[in-house]
């Protein structure tokens, strides 16, 4: 408010020269800054630690004071306090990933910097990515072809030719193994049916014995029909396996030599020869491979494709279940239910349900969906397979329904907010023009409330994608033998167990036999989970924004 001289008046609190409200502004601004700093720190920690999984670090050679040599990748450096009498000083040590597990018996060693004479990164040091026993580091001092002849490792073309041949043999072997599995699939299906029948309660009955005899005859006939084709494929597979086992590299790390059969070699990398552009391309290739390959070495190596696929499919099925249920509930509570004690109790129940710990939902899903519903389905439709459960055990379907129940309060509340935001005049105008209540709901209210429904879906996806506790009880596993979707009818197998990114992070971080080696993979998986949630949310936000513009009369 201006004073008599036209200048604004300065309002101060009693006993203070600060303008009224300024301390509150500073407190709220600092609180906002603290939140942003913590969010930035979270992202920074995840990204920096995940980068160690993808970025090709240099291979270092250390000469120590005792005359020995160590080869590996420097992954950490830490301070060590040293107390000598009354004097205190600080020294440092480095953590070196030495690989070569057959020789070193450990992936990592700590070395005091005072014990290091020289440190170098020669261009001829390599990193060998293997299918088992982790990475191997050293110099390639010898190589042998599949027929046992030595290869001139000083000739890059000869060495590259051997490695390319091995890569071609591995691809051909994988193709043959896939064809062998596809050819044997009818026989495997019959054998599985026979095994389930022999272990079922029907095996003791006369009808069961007759069916077992018929299945056994069918198995024998199918086996005889496919025998020649399967034997031919297996012969070719064994031939390529023999070549890969015979061809090998010899690595020298310090004073030790390590023979590496090319059957165990996925890739040979010369990281010290790469520039910034080469490292960037290499990191992108590693990231793509991480997304689309399967894990190995007890989930400490390889990719996360099964977990990524399982998470996306789980969230999709959960969304399909929770949106109709939440929207119908919100429509009834907002549009049809009369105000009164029952509506207040329903509101209170929905609000309280949102605060129930997720492990409680997991126990409910285990007791009701898995044991009760799944057990009833097995008794009604899969009695011939009992006591081996089909739906009476954890699986994708029950995990999806459990998460749908967990997130339905969020969808109900957000949808109700969207419905109540629709002006009452729209309802009255529609009814006045002769529309029925259902037509008004279908063509006026629900379309206008769609942004609110999508808000509920965004919140539900954000919560469900990171849940772990309920999934541990309803179907998530450390390693799934097959994906829930494949080429075998009915193609979508809702009864199968599955892998999940959140459970994968827990397993790699806490249950891995080699936690130190798996730590970068845990952060890399965390980064992928964050990116997945952000991507799903951004998609819903864009759709919501376009709908809001449309209902405000703007051009989309």
Shape: globular
Unreliable spans are none
Would you count the extended β strands for me? 13
Percent range for helical residues? 55-70%
Count of helix runs: 14
Mean pLDDT across residues: 86
| Spatial separation of the terminal alpha carbons | 43 Å
How do the SSEs run, as a string of H and E? HEEEHEEEEEHHEEEHEEHHHHHHHHH
Classify the beta-strand content into a percent band: 5-15%
Structural class, please?
alpha+beta
Largest sheet: 6 strands, antiparallel
Question: Could you explain the architecture of this structure?
Answer:
With 556 residues, this protein is an alpha+beta fold. It contains 14 helices and 13 strands. The strands form three sheets. Strands 6, 7, 8, 9, 10 and 11 form a six-stranded antiparallel sheet that branches. Helix 1 (22-54) packs across helix 14 (515-551) and helix 6 (305-336) runs antiparallel to helix 11 (437-466). It is globular, with a radius of gyration of 32 Å. The two termini are 43 Å apart. The model has no long low-confidence stretch (mean pLDDT 86).
Summary of the model, kept short:
This protein is of the alpha+beta class. Helix content is 58%, strand content 14%.
Defining traits:
556 residues, alpha+beta, 6-stranded antiparallel β-sheet, 5-stranded antiparallel β-sheet, 14 helices
How is the topology of this model organized?
Blueprint: H1 22-54, E1 60-64, E2 69-84, E3 87-97, H2 101-104, E4 108-112, E5 116-120, E6 125-130, E7 136-144, E8 150-151, H3 156-198, H4 206-246, E9 248-253, E10 256-261, E11 265-269, H5 276-292, E12 295-296, E13 301-302, H6 305-336, H7 341-353, H8 358-381, H9 396-420, H10 424-432, H11 437-466, H12 469-474, H13 501-511, H14 515-551
Helix pairs in contact: 1-14, 3-4, 6-9, 6-11, 8-9, 9-11, 10-11, 11-14, 13-14
